[in-house]
Specification:
The protein is of the alpha+beta class. The protein contains four helices and twelve strands. It is globular.
């Protein structure tokens, strides 16, 4: 008989309101220097092109880094088009939460226990529920709709990020609690987002936290398979 696994989604929710390198994993975006690179005459159009280019990518990896209650945590994400996701939460208070989504099938495990099939349609606040929002954030197909959430987009400068020329734009992300300031680093070589930084309100503490999302390994060959 298949088991359904309910897991706390607070740490996923905190991160998904959106990385320097942690441990031994080398993640692009950890350092940058100023440089001269062309900027778009229309900042909003540049942002839209970046999101459109990302939507067309057949695969990529991302890391979300954030601090909750003074404890550093990060989420590692793998995406393979059109609908395969693998998410791992890493940190001292995370209990090793992990989830794989393949189409309408969802699998989860915690603290190294065996994988179990789970359900998106469970009570709010569980990891499965919060993962339902993940696909919207990382692979929202309606780019024009996504752009309605971004305001006050302005060119901020040009840099070299991990050896790649990038242009930087600042923006306000609309929210019910007011505008959330952020920045995005876009590669001039392929128009793909390389890093996004913004603030967010912690769901577990009455404080602000900075979330850094770093994207890398675009269009590389890897697979995400059902674990059971």
């Amino acid at each position: 008989m298949k088991r359904k696994l309910r897991l706390s989604g607070l740490l996923f929710g905190a991160a998904l309101l959106a990385a320097t390198s942690c441990g031994q994993l080398k993640v692009p975006g950890a350092s940058s220097t100023t440089a001269s690179a062309p900027a778009s005459d229309d900042p909003r159009e540049a942002l839209k092109k970046a999101f459109t280019a990302q939507l067309a990518a057949r695969s990529y990896r991302a890391r979300l880094e954030y601090t909750v209650g003074g404890v550093g945590t990060h989420n590692d994400l793998e995406f393979v088009a059109p609908d395969r996701y693998h998410v791992t939460v890493v940190g001292p208070a995370t209990m090793g939460q992990e989830m794989i989504i393949i189409g309408n099938d969802k699998f989860a495990r915690i603290a190294g226990r065996p994988w179990a099939k789970t359900d998106m349609n469970v009570a709010a606040g569980t990891m499965a529920t919060t993962l339902g929002d993940l696909t919207d954030q990382f692979h929202q197909e309606d780019v024009s709709q996504k752009m309605t959430k971004y305001d006050a987009v302005q060119f901020s400068g040009s840099e070299i990020l991990e050896g790649q020329p990038v242009v930087v734009y600042q923006f306000n992300l609309k929210s019910k609690k007011g505008p959330i300031p952020g920045k995005i680093w876009i590669s001039t070589a392929d128009n793909l987002p390389r890093k996004i930084v913004h603030e967010a309100s912690s769901q577990t503490a009455n404080s602000k936290m900075k979330i850094t999302t770093t994207y890398y390994d675009y269009n590389t060959n890897f697979n995400i398979s059902p674990p059971i």
